């Protein structure tokens, strides 16, 4: 493929981030100038994002705040920051409604603040969904403390992007957490959700699991086996995993995508760039690999690029179909 060719066609990117000035300032003040061991907070502005989108064939991006989120130890400060970044994200959507969507942030681990911001995000801002980190203060999302939040997300049939964050234990050997810790955090969080019965109790929530399911395809059978020793009755682990959605942000090829298709079907896959934490050139290269892989047939490619996303985000259906 020619280097400057557009690899995708009308893709809807469900895993992309934005960094507002208020968020950058708060992160730096809280000591997160190198978030999760990465070299720096990446630059972001809407014009640069649109240029990457046009070069890569991305019709629309769902914008979310990446790890470490918006809570840096003070509940009131986290409430203010969540409100600020969500309002700024909604303003970006208002300026370019067919190119951007918003997955709003919540100031967890502050449950009352999270519920208040969830209502503001949906009822005032018209957010397209919510982003949740894999854990807050070490409590993964199957913990009972999240039940009121999950109940409201279910009532609203919300789309929830499950995004990894660093574990509470120190990073190993000085590696950036996204290399190894993020995939295992995602796997822990999904196991927590499934083994605690969250998908069964709250079936209307549409969870999107990041990074092609992380290590789930390798560990699903092990989780299934151990599920018989946990709780009062066995859990249908395979059924629960097959009912989730998965973005393919990151390095899904050549190995992870075929393995993921042993857990779920192609109509549960979604495109994700992870921009700007994944730089422009890498976004383009990974998109080219996805667009040309023979792991998916032509209909499955179309489902991954936009058709499945338009079911989750019908507001953006004209974005994907027009390109």
UniProtKB/TrEMBL annotation:
Which EC numbers characterise this protein's activity in its record?
A: 4.1.1.52
An example GO biological process term is: secondary metabolic process
In which organism is this protein found? Prauserella cavernicola
Which leading EC class covers this enzyme?
lyase
Q: Write out the entry's keywords from A to Z.
A: Lyase, Metal-binding, Zinc
Keyword Transmembrane in the entry? The reply is no
Record keyword Phosphoprotein present: no
Q: What is this protein called?
A: 6-methylsalicylate decarboxylase
Molecular function terms in GO for this entry? 6-methylsalicylate decarboxylase activity; hydrolase activity; metal ion binding
Q: Which Gene3D superfamilies match?
A: Metal-dependent hydrolases
A GO cellular component annotated for this chain's UniProt record is:
cytosol
Listed under catalytic activity are: 6-methylsalicylate + H(+) = 3-methylphenol + CO2
Domain (Amidohydrolase-related): give its ranges.
12-314
């Amino acid at each position: 493929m020619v280097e400057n060719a557009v690899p995708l066609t009308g893709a809807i990117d469900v895993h992309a981030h934005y960094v507002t000035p208020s968020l950058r300032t708060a992160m730096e003040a809280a000591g997160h100038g190198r978030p999760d061991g990465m070299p720096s907070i990446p630059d972001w502005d809407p014009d640069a994002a649109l240029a990457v989108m046009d070069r890569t064939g991305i019709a629309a991006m769902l914008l979310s705040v990446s790890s470490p989120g918006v809570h840096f130890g003070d509940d009131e400060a986290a409430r203010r920051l969540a409100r600020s970044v969500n309002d700024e994200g909604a303003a970006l959507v208002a300026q370019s409604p067919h190119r951007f969507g918003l997955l709003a942030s919540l100031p967890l681990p502050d449950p009352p603040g999270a519920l208040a911001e969830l209502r503001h995000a949906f009822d005032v801002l018209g957010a397209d969904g919510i982003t949740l980190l894999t854990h807050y203060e070490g409590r993964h999302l199957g913990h009972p403390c999240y039940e009121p939040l999950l109940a409201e997300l279910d009532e609203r049939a919300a789309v929830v992007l499950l995004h990894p964050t660093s574990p509470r234990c120190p990073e190993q050997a000085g590696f950036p957490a996204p290399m190894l810790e993020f995939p295992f955090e995602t796997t822990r969080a999904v196991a927590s959700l499934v083994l605690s019965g969250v998908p069964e109790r709250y079936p209307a929530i549409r969870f999107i699991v990041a990074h092609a399911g992380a290590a789930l395809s390798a560990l699903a059978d092990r989780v299934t086996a151990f599920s018989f020793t946990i709780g009062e009755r066995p859990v249908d682990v395979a059924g629960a995993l097959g009912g989730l959605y998965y973005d393919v942000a990151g390095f899904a090829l050549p190995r992870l995508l075929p393995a993921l298709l042993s857990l779920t079907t192609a109509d549960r896959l979604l495109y994700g760039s992870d921009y700007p934490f994944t730089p422009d050139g890498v976004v383009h290269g990974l998109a080219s690999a996805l667009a040309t892989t023979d792991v998916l047939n032509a209909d499955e490619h179309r489902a991954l690029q936009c058709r499945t996303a338009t079911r989750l985000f019908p507001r953006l259906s004209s974005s994907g179909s027009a390109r």
